[in-house]
């Protein structure tokens, strides 16, 4: 089984920059030409105060990219699910799925930035339960002819959401701790990881598969995507020297989690291929690369010099990325 490679897009930037939607369109069109199979948008309403991160809304951005691409999967990595109204989210996602001809994959998680919850009137301490509620409502609206039921303060009376997305958007759940891994196994189509080493991935993926078996699901039907930083350089040392400061300025890896900047793929093309092979052997099916500084040179070099070393291209994420009927 060959791995597939996608790219994160720069829809959020450091405080010194601002996202450029036209650039993202050109970046995405070129990525598709080069053989990347998916594009992943980051999600926050706002992040940071003294040093805020300018951000384009994830689903709106993906809708624009859907109009300018034809084959790549369009994903969120991740969408903060609890702060969104489930009916509005279901309708928005269904529209993007229809317009993109079934290319939407929602990576979703419970979130961590409390100010977003306060600003949207969402209980931060109860975000896990709200996450599960929102996921359940969306799946029902996407797949059932008629929805009736009460969820907390939300009431649905013979609601029909048409047109239904065909198929429904894929659902990959992101997170670290065991209760989240159990959600992956029981509620989603698979797992979206963030900055995991091959060893950490192996341990958590084994737990997910075990939880799926315990719940009566076939673990082989679950899919995964791993988000990994990339820096191709003249040597591993030179690439590390560039990668470390940039990752520290852009990305958070909680100390209590398995996420670590040590997961970065760095070095010559051959060294990068060797490191990625370890992830493939650990069971990673698709890798979302976060290229150093979102530099086009990194995107081009990876496609030309690293992809061929790994035989990328087999469609291993059809169930999750194209959606599932269940």
UniProtKB/TrEMBL annotation:
The EC number on file is 1.-.-.-
- Quick check: keyword Oxidoreductase in the entry? yes
Q: Name one GO molecular function term.
A: oxidoreductase activity
Pfam family, any one: Bac_luciferase
User: InterPro entries annotated for this entry?
Assistant: Lucif-like_OxRdtase_Rv2161c, Luciferase-like_dom, Luciferase-like_sf, SsuD_RutA_monooxygenase
Q: Which residues form the Luciferase-like domain?
A: 15-285
Q: Which domain of life is it from?
A: Bacteria
State the Gene3D superfamilies in the record: Luciferase-like domain
* Alphabetic keyword roster: Flavoprotein, FMN, Monooxygenase, Oxidoreductase
> What NCBIfam families does the entry give?
F420_Rv2161c
The protein's name is LLM class flavin-dependent oxidoreductase
